[in-house]
## 1
Amino acid sequence: MTQQFELRCPSRPENVGLCRVAVATFTANLGFTLAEIEEIKVAVSEAVSNVVVHAYPGGEGLIELRCEETDDGVAIAVRDEGVGIADVARARQASYSTDPERMGLGFTFMESFSDEFAVETSPGRGTRIDMVKRREAPAEGA
Amino acid sequence: MLEEAGKAVHIAIKRQGSQATARLSGEFDLKAAPAVREQLDGLIDAGLQSIVVDLRGVPFLDSSGLGVLLGRYRRLSERGGTIYLLAAAEGSVRTVLEMSGVRQVMPLLTSESEVPRG
């Protein structure tokens, strides 16, 4: 069995940090460098913040975070059961945001700090973000 | 690393004339954003023209924190003022700031000695 974990929590601001630290601890154990872990933390923070801010307007719902070790890194999925993203292409543009207090850089950071990135969304049924991060340095003992 | 999860952001404010320095410590993310927004808005509403936001004690910054900084910059610049960002020369906070392009609108400095005195 590969190393993996799943975390399910309500879409509350305090759980952004919870998800971030869980993934940081997980990837540290997989031999990622501190610089790589910092990038992963930003990417996860953006994905989870998007769920908290956008997925459940006026309420809260599920955040599901899954991490699994791969041959050369980690696969991370952040899923919600919220309203979905109406226009993914537009949402992925830097500086686009439906919220004037946000910079619209969430997707930019997710894409920049991961080696593979995909969004699957369905209006009214939710969104799933998949990110893969590969280790630059070989794991200790490998 | 686990200790960081519950570390609330702390803001220490020092005023000198029309300038204020807001020294932040703790992770600046979605959870911290409302408290930082409220403190900085308070300084803007009090009529301060120059605000130095010192991020050197912030180990983590994402686009939620950036949004607060940009929003406060917009408010202050409409009143003829400005915000200076202070951040360590290296590390993930500097990387996020550089990638965001925020330095195109706000001065991004590494040392207090670079801040013009108001």
Note: The first helix of chain B runs from residue 33 to 45.
## 2
Amino acid sequence: MKILVGIKRVVDYNVRVRVLPDGSGVDTDGVKMSVNPFDEIALEEALRLREAGKAEEVIVVSAGGDECQQQLRTGLAMGADRAIQVKTDQQLQPLTVANAFLKLVEREGAELVILGKQAIDDDNSQTAPMLAALWGRPQATFASKVVLEDGKASVTREVDAGLETIEVDLPAVISVDLRLNEPRFVKLPDIMKAKRKPLDVVSLDELGVAAAGNLEVSHFEAPKPREKGIMVEDAAQLVAELKNRGLL
Amino acid sequence: MSKVLVIAEHDGNSLNLSTAKTVSCAAAIGGEVHVMVIGHEVDTVAAQAAALDGVSKVLATSGAHLENPMAANWADEVVALAGDYSHVLAPSTTFGRDLLPRVAALMGVNQVSDIMEVMGPSSFKRPVYAGNAIIDVAAPDGSKVVGTVRTASWKAAGGGGSAEIEGIDASGQGHDHTRFVGMEVEGGERPDLQSAARVVSGGRALASEEQFQLIYDFADRIGAGVGGTRAAVDAGYCPNDMQVGQTGKIIAPDLYMAFGISGAIQHLTGIKDAGTIVAVNKDPEAPIFEVADIGLVGDLFKAIPEMEKLLD
Ligand SMILES: Cc1cc2nc3c(=O)[nH]c(=O)nc-3n(C[C@H](O)[C@H](O)[C@H](O)COP(=O)(O)OP(=O)(O)OC[C@H]3O[C@@H](n4cnc5c(N)ncnc54)[C@H](O)[C@@H]3O)c2cc1C
Ligand SMILES: Nc1ncnc2c1ncn2[C@@H]1O[C@H](COP(=O)(O)O)[C@@H](O)[C@H]1O
């Protein structure tokens, strides 16, 4: 079985993102870029499935400009067998990304796609269910546990009310939550090895995918700051202040 | 004129508060607002939806295969009705985030996630980068709008309505490729985190599951819901459904009390809409103090028992 894993290049989660003064976007100049944290978890899960003998090949996929090859190399260093860049200079929205994944799924004959539950830049949280819909296959989103057996996956999902377990037949799309696993660290020799692993480039056009129905994003602004608060000296003052404001 | 279809979130017995909030967003878009209740034997929930202010019709789709909200089955039912509507909305809870992108893809449109403000029938404000930026986003002219609603940004619609309820036949039998196995619910008697007026939260500083009991006890003392940081959840001090933040729950209680929480951006994005934020942290430099309305630099293990005494 082949597993496709989505790898999105995003502003590192430690960066304090700032909106540009002209409202045209956020400042990414000289800002650290990383693999979307959920995608590291997705890849870790795929690698564990391969190591457990439940998959033969793990392919990392990123859609974007050539910069995203950096993140694909990180994925290869973590242990993916090969990488595919879906090359485009357009700003991608989830429906287009999902369409591109569908083409690759068909080309590769993949039976499982593991994505992050959300990309921490656009916070869209859409791509996995969209791919499942286009593919006409089951989805198991927000996974915190995955057990693969006999052509099906039993997935525990982190939902608002607690933990839900569902069973889906493969092929399927899984999106991962934070507690699924702890991604491995990349070691220096792995980085060297990753340089020799195959990284194929295919353009969005070549895949036959056209970006359609894009939402228009026109203006960025910083969130309204909260009003400055007060400091109290001790628990007694705190309780008094809360009572004063009618909150306790 | 707009015609908005709101997909109800419920557990089979009662309507989730997120639905009433989504109805408020629908009302801000204007036009007619209908609520679709999908499930198995949904009369009780449909009646609750019919009572929401501003709703003119409730569409109740029932079927044994629809008992649990399996996105693959529910999405087909939504799409079967969506043709008559200009907008399809659901709350941006795990329910809506599982279901609605599937609906959007089947309808061939991108989804507007986390609507926090309505600027016009097809233009909205929504947060990105963990709430560090707010963007204006518009659906293409003439395109249907499929969107999830950031519930913390909206007040719940009132309960004075009396909409007509129409039963709808399920469009299909559902897919057998997806099967519901079970649901493990934590929590119990405490107010629900997402709708509680008061929330008490603990962070890594609580240091163990045993000591996290301090947070539960204090919350119970003031009738509050309980939350936690990712660090607290990962370490097993509290269950995952209590995580507040970018990847947990986004909440807007009147009072939010953060004990031993540093105030990472991913956490803050979940509490920005709280009425009053209280922070107790022993580090005066902790970023949580930048957003706190009332801050106390001190040891939570001392502060909480002292507060409890003062409340006796
Ligand atoms: C992709 C991604 C998503 C994330 N999503 C979320 C999310 O949804 N929600 C979330 O919360 N986090 C999230 N995080 C994690 C986040 O970055 C922080 O690591 C986390 O919020 C820190 O939790 P904390 O404040 O409990 O712990 P810490 O940052 O370790 O802070 C503990 C605080 O307790 C104080 N303290 C220690 N002892 C005491 C004492 N006795 N009395 C008083 N104060 C004391 C310390 O001064 C410190 O400020 C995410 C991270 C990533 C990468
Ligand atoms: N450009 C991209 N390239 C590769 N994977 C992506 C891309 N965009 C989204 N994904 C995948 O889809 C997940 C969810 O993204 P989103 O729906 O944008 O929140 C991410 O965690 C990735 O796994």
Note: Chain A touches chain B through 82 residues (CB under 8 Å).
